[in-house]
C-alpha cells in the first residue's frame, strides 16, 4: 500500500506561481499513472493533469493547458505540478492520485486511480 503526501499549496495573487509536490510514503511498487485533481468549494473533484510514470507522457485539462506543467523525478519518486499564471478560478484543494496498474478507465476520471493524498489548499486572490 502507498500513501501520498502533497505539499506546496498556499496563498498567491493572480498571475503568480506555485509548485506542488507529491511524495509517496510506505511500501512502494511500480507506478503506472500519477495525476492531479482539484476540488473547488461547491464543485465536484475535477481532473487537472496526469503523467504516465515510465514514459513521461503528459495530459492536461483544457482549463490549465499552457499554464500548468506536470513532471516527475524518478530518482525521488516525486511528481510535481508547476502552476503559472494562476487565476482566482484555480482556487481549490489539489489532490495527488496514483494508478498502480493498467486499466481501461479513462485517466481523467477519479475512478482510474487507486490511492489519493489528503490534499493541499491553493488560494488565488484577485
Search tags:
single chain, 126 residues, mainly beta, seven-stranded mixed beta sheet, four-stranded antiparallel beta sheet, 11 strands, 0% helix, 51% strand
Q: Can you walk through the features of this model?
A:
This protein starts with a strand and ends with a strand. It is globular, with a radius of gyration of 14 Å. Strands 2, 4, 5, 6, 9, 10 and 11 form a 7-stranded mixed sheet that branches. It has a 4-stranded antiparallel sheet with strand order 1-3-8-7, with no helix packed on it. The chain is an all-beta fold. A hairpin with a 4-residue loop joins strand 7 and strand 8 (78-83). It has no helices and 11 strands. The model has no long low-confidence stretch (mean pLDDT 92).
Layout of helices and strands:
Blueprint (H helix, E strand, L loop, with lengths): L1 E6 L2 E4 L4 E9 L6 E7 L6 E7 L5 E3 L7 E6 L4 E6 L8 E8 L15 E2 L3 E6 L1
Parallel strand pairs: 2-11
Antiparallel strand pairs: 1-3, 3-8, 4-5, 4-9, 5-6, 7-8, 9-10, 9-11
Query: Total helix count?
Result: 0
The major beta sheet can be summarized as:
7 strands, mixed
- First-to-last CA distance: 40 Å
CA-atom Rg in angstroms: 14 Å
The poorly predicted ranges are none
Derived from helix and strand composition plus strand pairing, the structural class reads mainly beta
Oligomeric organization of the protein chains: single chain
Total number of beta strands: 11
String of helices and strands: EEEEEEEEEEE
> Which strand-content bin applies to the residues?
over 45%
Mean pLDDT: 92
Coarse morphology: globular
Classify the helix fraction into a percent range.
under 10%
Amino acid at each position: 500500500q502507498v500513501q501520498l503526501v502533497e505539499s506546496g499549496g498556499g496563498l498567491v495573487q493572480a498571475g503568480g506561481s506555485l509548485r506542488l509536490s507529491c511524495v509517496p510514503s510506505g511500501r512502494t511498487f511500480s507506478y503506472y499513472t500519477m495525476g492531479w485533481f482539484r476540488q473547488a468549494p461547491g464543485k465536484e473533484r475535477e481532473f487537472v493533469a496526469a503523467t504516465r510514470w515510465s514514459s513521461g507522457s503528459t495530459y492536461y485539462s483544457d482549463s490549465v493547458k499552457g499554464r500548468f506543467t506536470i513532471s516527475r523525478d524518478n530518482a525521488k519518486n516525486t511528481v510535481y505540478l508547476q502552476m503559472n499564471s494562476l487565476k482566482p478560478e484555480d482556487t481549490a484543494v489539489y489532490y495527488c492520485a496514483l494508478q498502480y496498474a493498467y486499466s481501461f478507465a479513462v485517466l481523467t476520471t477519479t475512478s482510474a486511480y487507486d490511492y489519493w493524498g489528503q490534499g493541499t489548499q491553493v488560494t488565488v486572490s484577485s
